[in-house]
Amino acid sequence: MSEHNFNLITQLEGNLKAFIQLSPQPQNKHWLLDINLFYEGELAGCTSFNLQGYDQHEAEHIARNIRKNEFMMKEIDEFLWGESD
Predict the structure, then answer these.
(1) What is the rounded distance in angstroms from the CA atom of residue 19 to the CA atom of residue 34?
(2) Beta strands 6-13 and 42-52: pairing type?
(3) Which of 24, 40, 49, 81 could be a cystine partner for 33, CB 3.0 to 4.6 Å?
């Protein structure tokens, strides 16, 4: 199977949605996971993660299950709202 871009829109929590784009970065041997965050339909911010050491299936699994990924959800919360105690 050849590597290709993967796009997904998902509900994160409450009125927060994410447009997720996963794209291969063959020159760096990793996947780039770009996330555009929308709150009540308005763009609230953009962030990205480098997924190194994952094959296509694993990277797509991470993209599909962001809500269950505690690390990524914590990073998104801190990105949007700042670090909280």
Answers:
(1) 8
(2) unpaired
(3) 49
Contact 23, 35 (CB under 8 A): no
Per-residue DSSP letters for 16-76?
Answer: EEEEEEEEEETTTTEEEEEEEEEETTEEEEEEEEEEES--HHHHHHHHHTGGG-HHHHHHH
- Model pTM greater than 0.85? no
Count other Cβ atoms within 10 Å, centred on residue 22.
24
Helix (H) or strand (E) holding 7: strand 6-13
Sequence spans of domains, the chain: 6-81
Whether the predicted pLDDT of 1 surpasses 80: no
